[in-house]
Amino acid sequence: MIRRALLSLALAYALAASAQQPPPTYKKYCAACHADSATGTDRGPNLIDTRSLRSRSLTQIRDLIRNGTKGGMPAFPLPAAELDSLAAAVHSWNASAFDAHPPGDPAAGRQLFAQQCQHCHTVAGQGGANGPDLSAAGRELTVKELDETLTNPSSRKGQRNGATCPSWAFCPDDPWAVVTARLRDGRSLRGFARSRGQHDLQLQTLDGKIVSLTAADYSKLDFEKTSLMPAFSGSPVQRQNLIAYLSTLGGIAPGPVSGPVPPATPAEIQRVQQPAPGQWPGYHGLPSGNRHSSLTEIHPGNAAKLQSAWTYSLPHLGLQTTPLVADGIMYVTAPNQVCALDARTGREIWCYLRSRTQATTISGDAAKGAQRGVALLGDRVFFLTDDAHMIALHRLTGALLWQVYMPTPGSPGAYGATAAPLVVGDLVIGGVGGGDAPLLGFIAAYRATTGEEVWRFRTIPARGEKGSETWGGKAINYGGGATWFTGSYDPETATLYWPTGNPYPDTDGTDRAGDNLYTDSVVALDAKTGKLKWHFQFTPHDLWDWDATEPLLLVDTKFQGRDRKLLLQANRNGFFYVLDRLTGEFLLGKPFVERLTWASGLDPKGRPILTANSKPTPGGTKTCPAVRGATNWYSTAFNPDTRLFYVMAVEDCNLYRQAGSWFVPYNDPANPPVKLLRALDIETGKIVWEVPQTGAPESNYSGVLSTAGGLLFYGESGGTFAAADAKTGKTLWHFNTGQAWKASPMTYTVDGKQYVAIAGGGNIFAFTLRP
């Protein structure tokens, strides 16, 4: 039996590595330079078990042979039959284990994997993190490589991105090299060198923590010559079964995790709902949406001593991400990319990357590359892809744990997603973009550990449902209401507050008579069930594309002599709102811009009082604010010490058209557009102070960050990052980055030292006080 098993395994290798003998064309054109399974030289790259070839399709290999490579292999314009024969041979020599289908019992191999391997390796969202994720091992490796790894794990030590280091040497690119750091205080730490520079090390300890070390922390690093993984000690039949199982692993398919997964713990949930000072585990830091930090190390007395700490670059200009920080690790995003960094040094630890979706299949800002960040809970990082998938990654490794497609199959629209998800208890909440085209908006909640959908709230009611009476015409079938910005959460009442986007068509209400609920609204939902508690609509029957997707700040403070639980928002329509967040009662609404012509004010219930001649017409109607709004999605803040609300405001107007080009700039040389940092008194809505910005308003989408240290951080329109006195707006420090701002700042601590960070251009900038 053992002999038969060995013969079967040998046959599998033959199928995977030498599925066909080299054709005559190979010997004629290739053998002089390339090695194959049996013939050839080593003057050119090996053509067997080569990862760069394994990832190519038969057509791609055919094109490579026919066209050659720039500065390398010459082109071979062979007759079609010879080209096909040669391409087929090369493709077969690089077949993955998944394609080879080696003999064995995958079910028995799966049981063996669960017993001996799963405590270190993750597969399909289950398992440990003390080794590489194996969810796509069958696609990534050949049968031969799988067997070599089991027999001699150190044979593949140091292999990363196709590069190989000798098994006896330390490879600086090997994220699983085992190292013992001898610390200067006499202690030792042993684990994996997940990342390393000349003067620092990011060490993953064997108990699942990442420790940031610099040369000042350690006196010596001892790298082990062998892998932590022991050689497989089972029988040949067991090895065959294990290889058969590993060969079936082709990646994570959309859908929730099927097997048992431990639930999120109360302690993990608490760390997100009430984060410790210096941690920033959610898009706004706190689930309340108020970008105000309790940190005080940096203050007006020392702000002038701020200096650059580090910079990290991502391959996308116009980053909109807000970095998150937990336990000294920073998480940043670009389109379809998540990277974990050492928050102290900026060194990359891991990056998750998936191909961007063709712009023809998604719409809106997602097609342009907008992406605003992630959410954290326990050992998971949550992220929305450009094509509206919610995914979960492992915080230590970046391994994909689960992915789900959020839109309902068959729903109208080219859905995309740009927002950072929001963690609410043991759920993760996401929304979608694309509402400037036909779609049906929704908010969806998933079990954070498994990706199982728990509830869904439609922002456009179905016919016959409550709210559908506010739609007259066909547009109820495709009327927008996108949910493309992160909401806020009140753990005390278990209430989720989510802002919604404009109705569609944007500037033509002919086929959508009525208020068009629940567009341009805040919906207050039971976080556990998704049931509507109350709603407030800021712009009924919107004709100017004024999404309500601006930050919703949940604030507990005195208001007009009473302790109140408030919801504050500076809306795109030009009004500043104060609501009772328990009931949705309208308490205050005042303009925070001077150029506001569409409404003369708000009635006692907060409904706008429309002015004459403000509706779009075929030829165009001048209306203020402009389509980008009196403000937009960039962050706002309320400081409980100054009792001021801070917002980046825009004074501008547009010509709004009913069809075609919906809006065009309204050029008034005597009154050009201007952006201003404004501080508002929440009791009255009056402007207390303002700082006009130099530069075009559209170049600056920076929000603000308030701190208990008495500072206000924001990006100036001229490309500088500034710290101002929160009481007066006076600039105390600035740093020129030369970037156009599309993101908002945040702050965190590492080892008790405060940092401030912001994304600008294609970079993450971090600042701290100089010694």
What key phrases describe this protein's structure?
about 775 residues; alpha+beta; disordered N terminus
Describe the structure.
By secondary structure, the chain is of the alpha+beta class. 13% of the residues lie in helices and 31% in strands. The strands form 13 sheets. Strands 6-5-4-3-7 form a five-stranded antiparallel β-sheet, with no helix packed on it. β32 and β33 (608-610) form a beta hairpin. α4 (58-67) crosses α5 and α7 crosses α10 (236-246). Residues 1-20, 37-41 and 158-170 have low confidence and may be disordered.
List the helices and strands and how they pair.
Elements lengths: L1 H16 L6 H6 L21 H4 L3 H10 L12 H14 L3 H4 L5 H11 L5 E2 L2 E2 L9 H4 L2 H9 L26 E6 L4 E9 L3 E6 L4 E5 L3 E6 L12 H11 L19 H8 L18 E2 L12 E8 L10 E3 L2 E6 L2 E6 L5 E6 L11 H4 L6 E3 L2 E5 L4 E6 L5 E6 L16 E3 L2 E5 L7 E2 L1 E6 L5 E6 L20 E2 L7 E3 L4 E5 L21 E6 L5 E6 L15 E7 L2 E9 L4 E6 L5 E6 L7 E4 L5 E3 L10 E3 L13 E3 L4 E8 L2 E3 L6 E3 L8 E8 L5 E6 L11 E4 L3 E5 L4 E6 L5 E6 L9 E5 L2 E8 L2 E7 L2
Parallel strand pairs: 8-41, 20-23
Antiparallel strand pairs: 1-2, 3-4, 3-7, 4-5, 5-6, 9-47, 10-11, 11-12, 12-13, 14-15, 15-16, 16-17, 18-19, 19-21, 21-22, 24-25, 25-26, 26-27, 28-29, 29-30, 30-31, 32-33, 34-37, 35-36, 36-39, 37-38, 39-40, 41-42, 42-43, 43-44, 45-46, 46-47
Helix pairs in contact: 4-5, 7-10
